[in-house]
Write a structure and sequence with these properties.
Blueprint lengths: L9 E2 L6 E2 L15 H18 L1 H17 L18 H25 L4 H19 L16
Antiparallel strand pairs: 1-2
Helix pairs in contact: 1-2, 2-3
The protein binds zinc ion.
Amino acid sequence: MSTDNGAVDRRCAVCQRFFTPNPRLGDRQKLCGRKTCRQQYKNQWQRDEYVKNSRFRRNVFRRVRRWRWNHPGYSRRKGQSGSDPPVSAVLREVSESVLRLEFAVNGLASHTSGCRDREELRAVLARCVERGREVLLPVGAEEKVDRYGTRS
Ligand SMILES: [Zn+2]
């Protein structure tokens, strides 16, 4: 469908206000252009991506971990919003529980194996991962694990 001036008013996907799309963007433009709408749309996109994309999740964990490493004094005291990490509160919550889980697994492995050395613990955990994979993905299972060179 073509129009005389190439643009038809459209509703913003976030605030529902009408806007005239930029002719250069055409059909791709879903938002009115307000900063709050762009931010909200991005947050929603991140949440959706977080749910369906495991690589995205891993990147979030890494980013948060790096951020914490670089901001050791950070705590969730009230009124300290200026130093929030660049991820939404939801993602932060999830990554915190994953971090706790990571500590718990490491602690458990250290406790049961009796090793306190970091490298040794890493080796123990690698064996645990291997073992768990064997339990959860018995020989003949469809899953590909060739990334670790153990099975193809
Ligand atoms: Zn809008």
